[in-house]
Amino acid sequence: MRFQFVLGEVFSGLRRNTTMVVAVVLVTFVSLTFVGAGALLQAQIGKLKDDWYDKVEVSVFLCPQGTTAAPSCAGGEATEDQIEALREVIRTELSGEVSKVWFESKQQAFAAFEERYPDGFQGTQLTEEDMQASLRLKLTDAEQVAVVSDVLSGRDGVEVVADQRAVFEPLFRTLNVATLLAAGLAGVMLLAAVLLITTTIRLSAVSRRKETEIMRLVGASNLFIQLPFLLEGALAAVLGSLLAGGGLWLAVRFMVTDWLERSVDWVAYVSEVDVFRVAPLLVVVAVALAALSSFFTLNRYTRI
Amino acid sequence: MIRFENVSKVYARGARPALDRVSVDVERGEFVFLVGASGSGKSTFLSLVLREQRPTRGRVYVAGRDVANLSGWRVPTLRRQLGVVFQDFRLLQNKTVHENVAFALQVIGKPRHVIRDTVPEVLEMVGLAGKGKRMPTELSGGEQQRAAIARAIVNRPQILLADEPTGNLDPTTSLGIMRLLDRINRTGTTVVMATHDDEIVNEMRRRVVELSDGVVVRDEARGGYGEREAILPDVGASPVLDAPGSGTRVPAQPVRGS
């Protein structure tokens, strides 16, 4: 009874205020799309970084099985002795530059690889033997990458000394700026959304002044009087967040999965799974927005 | 049932109090007329009972509760024991008579079968049997007030407050409303009615509490409305045209500089 009655009130309120409700839905839709886009950009950055990215500056990839173009790998896969020699060089010659050394075996590399690319890489299924072992170096001073690279490059058993940051850092900077931009726009739009929800609730309360007046007088509880307004705002905001989730899904589906992934296929991209991870967050933000606006409005307009 | 102990209500600091040390005691089942000129404090009295206002000083007890110190979340419980009727009926225009009465029960969470049983009963009691499907605009003023009374009593309140319920009605219709209120009173409901209608007060011979400038000036068990000023005070023939103090007419004079 109560539930049905409240729902009836909610829908009559939504009908009466259609234009405002549509405005709320659209504004929350746009603002939450920006919020979601920011979240997806950050997720993309996370996908591009491997497990070592934040820990080390230099990765020394050791010669894998089989032949490679590097002349230092003419002797085939790096041997235990070569690895120990490299460690010795790092200990002695680079003691001032390198603060910490990790060794990643082929097995560990394969485990990490499987985690990043659960569906295989570029359509091929690789095995542990396709992986290469590496030494991961943390530097005392991140600027010393060139020195370390000079010392270690070309030594027996070293295929390549990679400074991943040189490649990815500019890209990450771009993505971070884009995230900031999205967050800024989202902030402005969220503010607009809050103001709009507030206005909608106020309008709704004014247009139903007579009802609420009677409700007060016959002893309806505060919650019962305010619930329809609360639900109206929340419903509109949630609708907006669902639209935002849908929009992001479409964008990822057609722009990333169907297009980007086909043209540039060596990168791990955000997928629809990530959208489904972000969407509930958007709904939560929408509900929080509505609750916040209602809290400030209702006590002023429907007090007992 | 209603007890005012030295109640004062001041709306704005420094202003004349709307109620000034008012003490009134209304027993269970009584019928009380609240009379007095506009601005004498009748409406303030009623809104204090409803706890729409809190007294500035003094205590108000309604149905055994100290209303002045009642916390906000308990106010609805208090109001469920009160019924209110207004001069302007305050029916919801987009709902039928039946829906208007049912609304009062729906919003306090009464189950549907209770509403289905009670509403027609109450409509019959107020003389609107068979008119539940009408919209308020399709009813006469008297019928609208009956619908409003039905809404006020449908939850069987202990007290019925009426703020000039006959103010918008002609004398014959008013009489019907008064009979209805009297009947409700006879079922044990305490009725407090603010009114300007001297005919009704004189006819009913019930307790009369008269307020003037926020003070109780009269509290009679079976009172009449009291003296009313004459509409045209008897100050002699054409007092406006007669210059005070003389019997001669003063001729009009042109104003200087015009």
TrEMBL record, chain A:
Membrane topology according to the record: Multi-pass membrane protein
Source species, domain of life: Bacteria
Transport is among the record's keywords: no
GO biological process: cell division
Keyword tags: Cell cycle, Cell division, Cell membrane, Membrane, Transmembrane, Transmembrane helix
Localization, UniProt: Cell membrane
UniProt domain ABC3 transporter permease C-terminal: residue ranges: 185-303
Record text on subunit structure and interactions: Forms a membrane-associated complex with FtsE.
Name of the molecule in the record: Cell division protein FtsX
Family matches, as Pfam families: FtsX, FtsX_ECD
Transmembrane domains' residue ranges: 21-45, 177-203, 223-256, 276-298
Any one annotated GO CC term: plasma membrane
Function of the protein: Part of the ABC transporter FtsEX involved in cellular division.
FtsX extracellular domain mapped to chain residues: 56-161
Family (UniProt): Belongs to the ABC-4 integral membrane protein family. FtsX subfamily.
Automatic annotation (TrEMBL), chain B:
Keywords from the UniProt entry: ATP-binding, Cell cycle, Cell division, Cell membrane, Membrane, Nucleotide-binding
Function: Part of the ABC transporter FtsEX involved in cellular division. Has ATPase activity.
GO molecular function, one term: ATP hydrolysis activity
A GO biological process held by the record: cell division
Name of the featured protein: Cell division ATP-binding protein FtsE
Subunit structure: Homodimer. Forms a membrane-associated complex with FtsX.
Family: Belongs to the ABC transporter superfamily.
Predominant location category: membrane
Organism listed in the record: Promicromonospora thailandica
Family matches, as SMART domains: AAA (SM00382)
